[in-house]
Amino acid sequence: MAPATDPSTPRAARPSPRALARLLPLLRPYRARLAVAFVFLVVAAAAGLVFPGVLRYLLDAAFEQRDAEALDRIALGLLGVFAVQALANYVQVFLLSSSVERIVATLRERTFAHLIRLSPAFFTDRRTGELTSRLSSDLALLQSLLSTWVSELSRQVLFLVGGVIMLFVSNPTLTLTTLAVVPIVVGAALTFGRALRKASTTVQDRVAEAMGTADEAFGAIRTVQSFTREAHETERFAHLLRDLVEVAVSRAQTRALFFSVVGFVAFGAVVAVLWQGGQQVLDGGLTAGTLVAFLFYALFVAAAVGSLATLFGNFQEAAGAATRVFELLDTEPTVQEPAHPVSLPRPVRGAVTFEDVRFRYQPDYPESVRGISLDLAPGEVVALVGRSGAGKTTLAGLLPRFWDVSGGRITLDGVDIRELSFETLRGAIGIVPQEPVLFSGSIRDNIAYARPDASDDDVRRAASAAHALEFIERLPDGFATRVGERGVKLSGGQRQRIAIARVFLKDPAVVILDEATSSLDTESERYVEQALEELLEGRTTLLIAHRLSTVRRADRVVVLDEGRVVEEGSHEVLLAQQDGLYARLHSL
Description:
This protein has 21 helices and 10 strands. It has 588 residues and is of the alpha/beta class. The strands form 2 sheets. A 6-stranded mixed sheet has the order 6-7-8-3-9-10. The protein has a 4-stranded antiparallel sheet with strand order 2-1-4-5, with helices on one face. Helix 4 (68-115) runs antiparallel to helix 6. The protein is elongated. The two termini are 22 Å apart. The relative contact order is 0.09.
């Protein structure tokens, strides 16, 4: 029975700006660099604010005083101001951008590290494409926020405050005309900002859904192509993209309307200032240079207000992204590490006991395992047999604590497995699945995955024990041969022997074997059977069996039905019970 949705998985949270405040601890290691960047940002902004004032004197020198020497000096002074501004901009952009790259990398690493430690139940409810989208697109939004938003916010606030001060110094009457548009722009920002935040969250959700579908299709590419369902998958992806485009266009419409309103109001204010200032020039109360300088300051203020309104919209979008990222980080694993783990007696003997074990995937689901008690002596091979859905795989998954028992307990060498750390418990258990999973590195990397510090000789011995050395040495690059994604360049039997070699290198006391030969051809099965014979020697083994050859390898056969033990004994004894479930399954 497949695990159902984990009830503890949090529902999607509403986007909240408070989520961005949780980024602050990540900034602390870089506060010195960020402080220096802010100082240079202030210098660059100050240089920008100096420009209109210098421009005023330059224009007056040219048009009012007609002083060529003064014009030369002022022009050189302007070049100096721009040089200082360029240097300050370089320093602050470099310091800020390099710090942000490290901050986002840290957040990405923490998110991945948290996700990969969550219980398997979490991944039954989330597609991997959705999770990788969170790691990429949502964190890219946050990176944009930190690298440009913070810098631009600071810059535009400085321009706004400095510009308003210079406006009042230059001409209080014209200043009041300029500032009259600010409430309108702020109101538009608040109104459109909420709509943008909601629309942006929807867009990101649609992106995650589309990427999840693509990832699913790529992961099952052979199945897709074998059923010639390429057109269907393309249409399914295209349908999701159409939904994405629809909500993205709606967001673009909102954003375009927002920019249009703000732009019209801002430049309308510029027209009003030009008209009113022109009247004062005609009356002789204002020089042309002063009017131009005032106009520049007014443009600075208008641009700052417009930019702040835009940044507010970006802030709302980033708040949605941060909320989704921290939603993942706040997800608690359903299977927890013990607060004070105990140690196993050394050496690990591999004695496993199931004591009245019960388990259900959800509180409102029927029990998959119903009061099973079972002892596995050190070195004993026990086969689990039963119909599909009898609880075999579920019981095997409880031993390494992929799920926790709902009742009863499981012990390893007399210690409750819930008192052991994951490293201790799972380090003592080796798993050979029916469909082995290989990573897209080399053969050596895949074998050494069990023990990264293993020497080449250790890896070679493990491959030899798994009867994998024959085919590895025939490959052009030997152990350096890359296996492709999920081991696609190797046959099923070769992948299975690599998986067995990995367990040999791990050298566990307990082995869980999920019918490793059921999908292999006769020749591959012979090699794998030989490897398994050596692997199980002296190790406690829980064997999920479907085939006669596998069952005969077991010292004892346990027959499960509807989550209970209904028969137990050797293959011969159970086969002799003609009216028993095992005999009926065997005859089938």
